[in-house]
Amino acid sequence: MLPARFKATETPDQRARRILELEYKITALRQQVEHSTQRLEQVCATLPIETLISSPAVRRASAREQARLGEREESLLAASTRSETSLSSTEETVEACKGVVKGHIDRLHQYNEMRDFGCGKFFLFLASRVGQG
């Protein structure tokens, strides 16, 4: 679909010419902005820092930056609180898992003791039979 500025009755040549004119205007505007920026930088370089700091534009920019930093600080504080809560929950989970693992280890030790005792009795039984035979 054609942009609204292009008329449906324009020929491709007219459209191309209009595009070139617009590109020329855009280039001219960019050059003006660049020149104005350079001039502003030159003027600012000659002004004392106190004048620059006390300007309303700098104050507004500083206030915006302070607000942005405040929001960022609040966000980081909230993230830190969430992390601490998560860490605390994780530590509780680890402690619970340690208890479960210790219980399993204790049961394994009991099983091994019973097995060793059972094997010992079996070997004594075998030894007693061998000695009799």
Automatic annotation (TrEMBL):
<comment type="similarity">
    <text>Belongs to the SWI5/SAE3 family.</text>
</comment>
<keyword id="KW-0227">DNA damage</keyword>
<dbReference type="Pfam" id="PF07061">
    <property type="entry name" value="Swi5"/>
</dbReference>
<dbReference type="InterPro" id="IPR010760">
    <property type="entry name" value="DNA-repair_Swi5"/>
</dbReference>
<feature type="compositionally biased region" description="Low complexity">
    <location>
        <begin position="76"/>
        <end position="90"/>
    </location>
</feature>
<dbReference type="GO" id="GO:0006281">
    <property type="term" value="P:DNA repair"/>
</dbReference>
<feature type="compositionally biased region" description="Basic and acidic residues">
    <location>
        <begin position="64"/>
        <end position="75"/>
    </location>
</feature>
<protein>
    <submittedName>
        <fullName>Uncharacterized protein</fullName>
    </submittedName>
</protein>
<keyword id="KW-0234">DNA repair</keyword>
<feature type="region of interest" description="Disordered">
    <location>
        <begin position="64"/>
        <end position="90"/>
    </location>
</feature>
